[in-house]
């Protein structure tokens, strides 16, 4: 066997070993990411007595749905809050994606005269903020949005970080020659953006949409500031209030027999973990639907000579 053949065999053997090593490494890493959430689900299905006796275990001695039953007693408010959260997430993500992508596209074009001014303005908002008090005054006194669903959407209607991400994506993905060709053919800027730029920017749009959806889904601070009506409370804020009520009843159980018996009957740990599952599972299940768009569109289009 010649020297070159021996070297090629050695390279292939090393390549196979390296593939096996990295596959095993990535599998272990993936399991380490999934395991905490699986463990939370197990704890949420564990009886309170088993948790007090044996602590946290992967296979509890007694399974129970008491945590979920406790939350089901509040199912009307939970469903209302879930509806509010889904509405805010869907509408807010559409608004955020629209504003972010159009703003980023404008400042990504070299022929836009004010691109530097708006880019600097976007960067300044990333580094500096007016503060909570001016934001509250603007939302309540000037815009009159207190105790409305728009108070949960408009504060996050645009993300400066996502603008910078999409600006870079547009500059690297959308060739100037394609846009110039469309302009020569008489296409307007809106038509260029809708029919040429957006199909090429599907991965970037999907990425910022996922970031925006995650932000709207997990938001509770705006509800704390602006929402007083029970019909407009989002899911995350409602779960925080339930958690606070459980802690209050637990810490003040010695104040009276009725409060003490009520606090002892609450599956505290299982309910906490059940709230984590309820608040996390829907957004976690949406990841596979977004994932396929991350790579689609990367090779769509191009400049033909």
TrEMBL record:
Q: Membrane spanning segments where? A: 20-45, 78-105, 117-137, 149-170, 190-217, 270-290
Q: Where is the ABC transmembrane type-1 domain?
A: 82-287
The listed locations are:
Cell membrane
Q: Which domain of life is it from?
A: Bacteria
Q: Name one GO biological process term.
A: transmembrane transport
**What are the GO cellular component annotations?**
plasma membrane
> InterPro entries under this entry?
MetI-like, MetI-like_sf
Gene3D superfamilies xrefs:
MetI-like (1.10.3720.10)
- The name of this protein is Binding--dependent transport system inner membrane component family protein
